């Protein structure tokens, strides 16, 4: 006879009963412990990547290096070190936002991450242009299709989808950095979203972005969507060190060389080095957008790395008895649909608010 999943009440009592390590993480707060069991513990921590500016200099990728330095991203993109997957999840379980500050508690230590601390740890500042999915019209001159075509090796290609396969070298590398480091996601890296394209546009055109706001929005998204991986594990682990949280006995994961964007990454993107210069293996005239043969091998290779990392995390993860059985396919489907609906509603509200604000500004100008 099939085993019936435990009721919510049974699962709740199980979580409270097996409270040894959990009590230490959440200082005995039963509500937070159960939130962790029912929500946070189910989700994965995104496999972090980094890129060295010295490597870009050695590879003569000077234009990319220069425009990324304009964004003050050097220190953030070069963050490396051990990460603490369990404590990262504890951080997200407790995370809330107080104005421009990020506030969380880990093992009884209050972590108030202010603008000044961001500047010290990453060199990022909370000024500059705020960009997120709700206000993508903030850069009025941005045209998604025109910009994308301008990024292609063959600008006359027919646009079927916003694939990275036909992009020129600089644009391709920046797209890679956007989707793996700046607003990282767990899959679908070969396809660019409108948000990806706008960020690439701003980077290429030296429009200075408020990256703290962008990171905050991405963190909130990861907390809302049940299948979204928790991002910025290295950054959060650095904050854990800064606030002197006790990490004795905690699961630590060493960031491996495969997490670094390097020459192998460019080769997977179908670029090759000739005479000290990186050029496309396909020549200047790439195939139609969305049909480039390099897309699938790149995604498969990168996804293999993620799968290996995920398997290692699962193997090394603490075998706590309070781990629940996974949701049924129907439950996951319904939750995903509700999450998607909520996200769409929020984006629609933000878009309408942004457009009305723009209209108010224009009418005010006319009155003057």
Written account of the structure:
With 368 residues, the protein is mostly helical. The chain folds into two domains: 39-315, no CATH class; 327-368. Helices cover 51% and strands 7% of the residues. The protein has helices at residues 8-17, 20-26, 30-38, 53-58, 62-70, 74-77, 85-94, 115-122, 144-151, 169-182, 194-204, 211-224, 233-242, 263-268, 295-316, 329-367, and strands at 50-51, 96-98, 101-106, 109-113, 260-261, 271-274, 277-280. Strands 2-3-4 form a three-stranded antiparallel β-sheet. It has a two-stranded parallel sheet with strand order 1-5. A hairpin with a 2-residue loop joins β2 and β3. α7 crosses α13 (233-242) and α10 packs across α11. It is globular and about 60 Å long. The chain starts with 7 loop residues before the first helix and ends with a helix. The model is unreliable at 1-18 and 285-325 (pLDDT under 50).
Helices and strands in order:
Blueprint: H1 8-17, H2 20-26, H3 30-38, E1 50-51, H4 53-58, H5 62-70, H6 74-77, H7 85-94, E2 96-98, E3 101-106, E4 109-113, H8 115-122, H9 144-151, H10 169-182, H11 194-204, H12 211-224, H13 233-242, E5 260-261, H14 263-268, E6 271-274, E7 277-280, H15 295-316, H16 329-367
Parallel strand pairs: 1-5
Antiparallel strand pairs: 2-3, 3-4, 6-7
Helix pairs in contact: 7-13, 10-11
